[in-house]
Write a structure and sequence with these properties.
The structure is a homodimer. By secondary structure, chain A is of the alpha/beta class. Chain A has two domains: 57 residues, Nucleotidyltransferase, domain 5; 105 residues, ATPase, nucleotide binding domain (Nucleotidyltransferase, domain 5), CATH 3.30.420.40. Helix content of chain A is 32%, strand content 26%. In chain A, the strands form two sheets. A six-stranded mixed beta sheet of chain A has the order 6-9-8-7-10-11, with helices on both faces. Chain A has a five-stranded mixed beta sheet with strand order 3-2-1-4-5, with helices on both faces. In chain A, α2 crosses α6. The first copy, chain A, starts with a strand and ends with a helix. The interface between A and B is large, with 50 and 50 residues. Chains A, B: Pathway: Cofactor biosynthesis; coenzyme A biosynthesis; CoA from (R)-pantothenate: step 1/5.
């Protein structure tokens, strides 16, 4: 079984324990006859997959999660399905932070992803168009523009995660998940979280 | 004396205790012969002012501040000059947070402004293009997309300001300054902070 998670920047694939990403307009041809079970938050990129592969099955509706939240993205649902208790941080184009307790989703929120922040500062003023410096000292007040921006982005995301986590276990996933995980003790980084949740949900149906 | 602060969205004017803003390409004609003392962080908008008024004096270099920070915007310098002890939050196109102690600037950082956040979410995905809801409950985990975005933006900015302020007095200024001030007890909102600092600095020179 080949699994695929169609996001807002990449398509992520999972097959036999391997995970890889592909750009929507440069998809490689997958093995003939191997069905692709996919979830999607992006219709345009979904059409890219469908146009190039014959056996694609949209399983969005099979990813069920106990929650009061209306309009929860299917990728968030899948990642949350993989964790019964903890905070799930998916750091990609956007950063989503969700809380699970005894198999129930308690709610969550959305921050912009690192790339979006970078672009946003550049849009405000040419002077602010800087890279986010991963090594910026978050314990000292910044003394230049570059640090001032990196500090503003990273510390605000980290304070939010700390404020949400309290005593809960943290699970990081997504492109920048590994980077953020290192700011927290005992955090787990697992880039297959969405696929683990998909598998768990699909076992019931397929 | 007419004062002007040229920012990245508007030109703010100050005359005899009155303050108002104008768009760079729709400037009203000021009284003939009245000199305009201005500071500017935007060369393009500065040219708009110079093209339409004869007596304009750039006073950027007169706004001095004791600081180790390199590249501090002149508007931040001016606002900081107005406060000897406290945290200065200028919430405009960007949100700058600066700390003053005994007349010395200890450092500061930059977050995106509310409008930028809104635009940034919309750029990530059409689904995320929502208004920031000022009344969102910041004590409960959000249960829908709109709240999830407002919570992510507002709570992260507020947590950062709280983390910086500790026991210091908070001074808010800028277009969204009044809005943010209401989240903090005993906060001061003063939309003339930049001009007060300009006046203080200019008294030495003019």
């Amino acid at each position: 079984m080949l699994l695929c998670d169609i996001g807002n920047t990449f398509l992520h694939f999972y097959h036999k324990g391997k995970i890889w990403k592909e750009k929507p307009y440069a998809l490689t041809k997958k093995k003939e006859g191997l069905p692709i079970y996919y979830i999607s938050v992006n219709e345009r990129f979904e059409r890219c997959l469908l146009a190039s592969h014959s056996y694609c099955i949209n399983v969005n509706e099979h990813i069920e999660l106990k929650t009061q939240y209306s309009g929860l993205g299917v990728d968030r649902k899948a990642a949350c399905r993989a964790v019964d208790d903890g905070v799930i941080i998916d750091a990609g184009s956007a950063i989503t932070i969700d809380v699970m307790q005894e198999g129930i989703h308690l709610g969550g929120y959305i921050m912009p992803g690192l790339e979006s922040y970078k672009k946003m500062y550049a849009d405000i003023s040419r002077v602010l168009g800087r890279d986010i410096e991963p090594g910026v000292d978050l314990t000292q007040l910044p003394q230049n523009t570059s640090d001032a921006i990196s500090f503003g982005v990273l510390k605000s995301i980290i304070l939010m995660i700390k404020n949400t986590s309290r005593t809960k276990k943290l699970y990081f996933t997504g492109g920048d998940g590994k980077f953020f995980a290192r700011f927290f003790e005992d955090a787990i980084y697992d880039n297959t979280l969405v696929f683990k949740g998909m598998q768990k949900a699909l076992q019931k149906h397929i």
